Model the fold of this input.
Amino acid sequence: MAHHNQNQTKPHRDRRDWHNLRAMLPFLWEYRGRAMFALACLVLAKIANVGIPMLLKQIVDNLDQAQELLVVPVALLLGYGALRLSSSLFNELRDVVFARVRYHAMRRLSTRVLAHLHSLSLRFHLERRTGAISRDLERGTRSVSSILNYMVFSILPMLVEFSLVAVILLTQYAPVFTLVTFSTVAVYIAFTLAVTEWRMDFRLQMNRLESESGGQAVDSLINYETVKYFGNEQLELERFDTALDAWEGVAVKSQTSMSILNFGQGTIIALGVMLIMFYATASVVDGSMTIGDLVLVNAFMLQLFIPLNFLGMVYRQIKYSLADMDLIFKLLERKPEIQDKPDARELRLEKGEIRFEKVAFAYQEDREILRQVDFAVRPGEKVAVVGHSGAGKSTLARLLFRFYDVTGGRVTIDGQDIRDVTQQSLRRSIAIVPQDTVLFNNTIYYNIVYGRYDANRDEIEAAAGIACIRDFIERLPKGYETLVGERGLKLSGGEKQRIAIARAILKKPRILVFDEATSSLDSKTEQSILETLRQVAANHTTLVIAHRLSTVVDADRILVMEEGRIIEQGSHQQLLAKGGVYREMWLLQQKQSRQRLAEGE
Done:
């Protein structure tokens, strides 16, 4: 089955491979001088390599003629040593010079991929698995390095050497030697690639079965107690052994196929050398070649097969690398869903008035979240949105930040449609305290200063003061330098929330959004944070998304949402008097908090 699939995807793969290899060129262009120098070293190393058999011929011929004297000119022997040395020197030089090209390309690509990931829209990031992305990122950049490596260290040297040998054989010797040498090489390559392709299937199956059996073993140990409860140790062992049984079969096939490959390669080389020796000996006998020539063609033949030894491995690695590279370039070709218009301007903030005008929105076409939502938050006003979960409250914040574009109607700030301004300037003007406060695994100082990176120490302490967390921080042994993610100090929900509030205050925005910002707090902490929020919100335009009604009693206006529509609006007193959905929610929540109090007492 796997084999069948592989063949199906092949034509498409090859087309993409050329496209991807071309896409790699810009990353190399910066160090083109170095790359050219590395290639020059490569060619020089190969010339030295090919020169070795030529000198060997001279030495043998000299010995042949000088049988009475038994003297070999010292120059030839020194030359032989020098060639061996320079071959090694140029190879190492190539590695040293090329290292910068290769690692720079990896760095450039990694940075570009991360930048691209940050430019992709929220929808992409909600659907992805972080682990998988970081694995693809790592494998993709590694693949670029591998392909450059194989090109410069395996494939190009092989081609250069073949060309040099072909030129010497064709110009100095009968065509039959070139024919035999390169036919043997061609058969060897074809055989190696065919068998490697066939073997790759076994390798893939082996890897799959290995991780499958490993997964089962770990699973049975994680659920150790359950296994014991039901006395199913035997069942677990049988499942594990069945998976390993399949693995054993494939592993044996893999090893056998390896031996077939090696034996086949040996046979092809033996036949080729035998033919060459046959023709060369005949030529020496009839006087058209010397013994040195016989040594030369034989040495060339064997020398060509040394790099070909690794051909199977190189081919397999290149194939895997091309597949990994394809993932990364496909990712880079994904278009961000939310893009600035070509003529987008900076947002001009005057009063900070927000308007939702007949806004409709759906994450998927068939599931509408918002329908004809129409409201304004006037400058300096505090407007709250309440409703049962799933009513579409949090979507309002995502639309205001333009993580998604509305499907109907428009959202404006001071009369400017937020789709016409740059995302950067829009997000600079709004600060949010989210429902789930996510802090970086870094110091408290870093987490607050993240709100505005150029703020000074006094401003940071002032922001912490307004968020009622300053005393708490200063009592910690390390103060602001305390690490948030350290095992010893796990901040409570309330402390995290206050750091998020300090961060939002430090940003000095005109517009503040609180998205269920007190949902994780007990009522005492909630009251003190509400007091904080009241102070903060006094001179800002504030949108509060709330689940608990007690947190928004003081709002200028409360909007009640149900199934994506605003069904009631007014102040707390007006809505209670109205006796609608808001009043029901209020009574229910009051009853629940009374119960909680009673249980607490």
User: Anything to note?
Assistant: The longest helix spans residues 233-285. The beta strands are 354-364, 367-377, 382-386, 408-413, 416-417, 430-433, 511-515, 541-546, 557-562, 565-570.
